[in-house]
From TrEMBL:
GO terms for biological process: post-embryonic development. This is OLC1v1037522C1. Keywords: DNA-binding, Metal-binding, Nucleus, Transcription, Transcription regulation, Zinc, Zinc-finger. Homodimer. Residues 1-21 are annotated as: Disordered. Residues 24-78 form the BED-type domain. One of its GO terms (cellular component) is nucleus. The lineage of its organism: Eukaryota, Viridiplantae, Streptophyta, Embryophyta, Tracheophyta. InterPro entries: hAT-like_transposase_RNase-H, HATC_C_dom, RNaseH-like_sf, Znf_BED, ZnF_BED_domain_contain, Znf_C2H2_sf.
């Protein structure tokens, strides 16, 4: 039997060789193993807990320590596994006896730098509180969750060392995250060379309080379109100046007083007084001085009263309301088939027998998301033959004529659904992408309103009237944005307006072209005057100015020739419009093109970045199909306005930031208790 010998008292195996200074073993396994001589010239390692032996050295050959580590780390040792379970029980029950633990059997010496990663993890109260605040922000959890007994028990089970925080402490961490991310966004906004356009989304609450969520749209220094929520402001009254005051507060807070370019509202019925109060905000910065309100950009025409997504949703709502009885018939029929015992299998069997070409299956819609209603109607109409062959006497299925009307309805819902695709596919769209979609919708509705089919014309006419009001309100912005698309330019606008207005298109086309040149002229005036060259001293410069006033006829002739040469030079706008349009390419990066050609069009490129970043919708991408109005959560509406703003803004900003705890820990912002 092998004799177990402590490592420090092990004698040399051979007395014929000169004793060598032994190197201290560094592996962590020697906290749990000792070595001893075995039969012959072999040495074995013995587990201190279960006394099991393992090969360590046979003659000159070493077996290494990997198999010893597995014995410890994987819990193969039965005594060690029992000790680990006892330790875990001791953590959950602080007053429990620690007898039988690993330390009681054989206290290991202090672990060295190559100990397992788990041993290096230390508890951090601030880090835990930071991550909890981040979780509350990102997932819209209620703040009072931290004071509920269920959550507190869960947190204690994770780690009894964690000191539970109350709502006030939690708000401090939330505001700390908000302040840190706000500073990051401020740094980004300071680095942009263009302007910022704002989208305004109005929300209500069950507390009869109104909010405006202000979102900024801009092109950053890398020529990427950015969209960030800037402010969430409580509207204290419903006067025509309430929105203006809110926007002014936002601009001042973000140091953007002279950088506002365009506004997009979500108020299709906003009064002219409201718009008039907002036009003065669209002032022009010329040569470092802010011009008065009469010098607004395009005289304040860069204000859109309606959100593109909300307009399309309102058209869908109106169409569904016009056919609500038939739509409800379809909904009841689908529900009956889906939830009747044995009927789904029978329905699928009949579908195969009839060889219906549709690959769709029945779905039940969610009434607050109209895209699901569209999908339900399309699937049901494609499977209408199956409905007629399956015994569903318990449901009032649509008649043949009603199925025809459902198909007509689906064709117009598809028009709106396709129009929404630019908001649901990929990143947020630049403004040049909206002209084509809006133009197709209006053209289709105009043609349908003149249909000889009374059902089609009666369905399409009110939709056409409503969408035409939206088009007249924002077509100028849509068309100017298309000018900035090198694939389209003026030719695409001329073609589109000619299709819509026929012989009357000339006036519409000229209006757009004049607006493009007027806007470009504003950007020319914004450029600072050329610097005075150092070749002239102050006296020389004064002499040069006086020389320009010389009345000698010879000088007048020189001035005339010079003015003629300057007027003959073409602007970068003229050069851009004269060059042929690029071939139509899908997935075209229009901002990337302007970045690459910025040197060729120094002034026009800045103008293009501002135009292409105009928001045509105020709705977030995840709610474009929603039929519900913006509603503040009942719990949040009871919080202070500053806390509400911190929660909503920080959630948006954290999508673009890792919010590293280490860089956030030195923030000291605090918040008062909730009233």
């Amino acid at each position: 039997m092998a004799t177990v010998v402590e490592e420090n008292s092990l004698t040399p195996i051979s007395t014929n060789t000169k004793p060598m200074k032994r190197r201290r073993k560094k592996s962590m396994v020697w906290d749990y193993f000792t070595i001893g001589a075995a039969d012959g010239d072999s040495i074995k390692a013995f587990c201190k807990q279960c006394k099991k032996s393992f090969a360590y050295k046979t003659g000159p050959k070493l077996s290494g320590t990997s198999h010893l580590k597995r014995h410890v780390d994987m819990g193969i040792c039965p005594v060690g596994r029992l000790s680990q379970e006892n330790n875990q029980a001791a953590v959950c029950t602080p007053n429990s006896d620690s007898n039988g633990s690993l330390d009681a059997i054989d206290q290991p010496r202090k672990r060295r730098k190559n100990a397992t990663a788990l041993a290096k993890v230390s508890f951090d109260q601030e880090r835990c509180s930071h991550e909890m605040a981040k979780m509350i922000i990102q997932h819209d959890y209620p703040l009072h969750m931290v004071e509920q007994s269920g959550f507190q028990g869960f947190a204690r089970a994770l780690n009894p060392q964690y000191n539970l925080v109350n709502m006030n402490t939690l708000q401090n961490h939330i505001v700390r995250i908000y302040s840190r991310e706000k500073q990051n966004l401020l740094n980004i906004l300071r680095g942009i060379q263009g302007r910022v356009s704002l989208g305004l989304d109005l929300w209500t609450s069950d507390q009869a309080t109104s909010y405006v969520i202000i979102t900024g749209h801009f092109v950053d220094f890398q020529w990427k379109l950015q969209r960030r929520i800037l402010s969430v402001i409580t509207l204290l009254n419903d006067s025509e100046f309430a929105l203006k005051d809110a926007i002014n507060a936002c601009l001042k807070d973000w140091c953007l007083e002279s950088k506002l370019f365009a506004l997009t509202l979500n108020q299709p019925n906003s009064s002219e007084k409201v718009r008039g109060s907002l036009r003065s905000l669209l002032s022009v910065q010329r040569s470092g001085e802010l011009c008065d309100q009469n010098s607004g950009i395009l005289e304040g025409q860069l204000i859109t009263g309606s959100c593109y997504a909300r307009v399309l949703s309102s058209l869908v709502h109106e169409a569904l309301e016009a056919m609500k009885f038939i739509v409800e018939k379809v909904r009841r029929s689908v529900k009956f088939v889906m939830f009747s015992k044995g009927l789904p299998e029978k329905f699928s069997e009949v579908k195969e027998q009839l060889q219906v070409p549709s690959t769709r299956t029945l779905i039940l819609d969610e009434k607050t998301s109209w895209n699901t209603t569209y999908e339900m109607l399309v699937a049901a109409s494609e499977l209408k033959e199956v409905f007629s062959c399956v015994d569903i006497s318990g449901a009032d299925t649509p008649t043949v004529d009603e199925w025809r009307q459902v198909q007509t309805l689906c064709s117009y819902l598809k028009l709106m659904h396709d129009g929404m695709s630019i908001l649901t596919i990929g990143s947020y769209p630049t403004s040049n992408m909206f002209f084509l979609e809006a133009w197709k919708i209006l053209l289709e509705l105009v043609n349908a309103s003149m249909s000889h089919d009374p059902f089609i014309s009666s369905l399409a006419t009110p939709l056409k009237d409503k969408f035409e009001r939206y088009w007249n309100d924002c077509y100028l912005i849509l068309a100017v944005a298309v000018y900035m698309d090198p694939r389209c330019k003026r030719q695409f606008v001329e073609m589109g307006l000619s299709r819509l207005y026929g012989e009357n298109a000339g006036a519409w086309i000229k209006f757009v072209e004049r607006a493009v040149h007027d806007l470009y002229h504003e950007y020319i005036l914004q450029q600072p005057p050329p610097p005075i060259t150092e070749a002239f001293g102050e006296d020389d410069h004064e002499y040069a100015i006086k020389s320009e006033l010389h009345t000698d006829p010879e000088y007048e002739l020189i001035d005339v020739d010079f003015d003629f040469c300057v007027s003959d030079l073409k602007s970068d706008l003229d050069l851009y419009l004269e060059r042929p349009a690029l071939p139509p390419v899908q997935d075209f990066d229009v901002l990337g093109w302007w970045r690459e050609n910025e040197k060729d069009y120094p002034t026009l490129s800045i103008m293009a970045s501002d135009i292409l970043s105009i928001p045509l919708t105020t709705t977030s991408p995840d709610s474009v199909f929603s039929t519900a109005e913006g509603q503040m959560d009942s719990l949040r509406s009871r919080l202070r306005p500053t806390t509400v703003e911190a929660l909503i803004c920080a959630k948006d900003w954290l999508k673009y930031s890792s919010c590293d705890f280490a860089s956030d820990a030195d923030q000291t912002t605090t918040v008062k208790s909730e009233s």
